[in-house]
User: What shape does this take?
Amino acid sequence: MSDARPEAAGAAIPMASFERPSRGTLREGIAAVLGVAATEIVVVDRGDGAASTYPTERVTCRLADGRTVSLFCKYTGGYNDLIQDHERYGHRGGVQYEAEVFRHALQGLPVTVPRLYGTHRSEAPPNLWLILEWIDEAVPLTWLTRSDGLAIAGRWLGHFHALTESRLPRLEDEGIVRRYDAAYYLGWARRTERFSRSWHAEHPWLATACRKFEDVLAFLLEGPLTMIHGEFYGKNVVLRGDTLYVFDWESAAIGAGEIDLASITEAWWRPNEVRAAEDAYRSARWPSGAPPHFAERLAASRLYCGFRWLGDNARWTAHSGPLIQRLEPVAAELGLI
Assistant: This one.
């Protein structure tokens, strides 16, 4: 699987580094979530899960009534030495937060996401399991060669943002998802400026764009807001036929929907595919036409997404020359340089 971001390789914890539950423990945990006796479950197969900063695995079970279920299990707890600073300056919420997003924000929405079977707590590590539906025969978007895959993602995203925009009052009143504020955005710009000092001689515009990022925050804070996925990248989006499913919701937040659009169209896509995705997004979210300043919000979102990676880890930033080059015309478009 290819990925545009410099730190993508090695971001996930390989199962070889993690002592996964024994077959018996696994059977008991799944049985508790499914509400059946452990004796009614046979674990048929176990395999690697999707890319994630937490250990994951795919589990196939056969039930007493003959049905076969495919599960996606994500684990946390008991191996803190393998995950350092996972929260990432308020960007990620962890497995428990993701479970609450599934239960209280995604439940009942007419969009395709994997089914939440439930969570399981264990006294022995891993202490918390998130158990979702595994989508058989689905392919991550980053693996696809079909030219319409990105447009399908843009259409799904526009539909999702239209639905959740109307639900924001409840999501905020009940504290279900966090909200991006000015301090959150500015933190990424400030860390980017600090982490990228070795690049300042080659790219003198970068420090200026970081310091002036506050000038364009209104596009992210005051535009039509919605619930966003937060890491709407190809590794978290899978297609089965023409149906798209979205995993890894632990970065869900209230913010500018264009952030998700900027994420999924980030780098390595053909320009015509990016335009098709943007058109599909606008048509699905705003059938009567996009509101003013859509282009500026999208550009500000692209710059934020770049800062999100450059301001995450100084070691990654040191190897991020291609990403920095892609951000220069974005900063110019916004009038920051």
Observations:
- Residues 15-133 form a domain with the Phosphorylase Kinase; domain 1 fold (CATH 3.30.200.20).
- The CA atoms of residues 227 and 318 lie 32 Å apart.
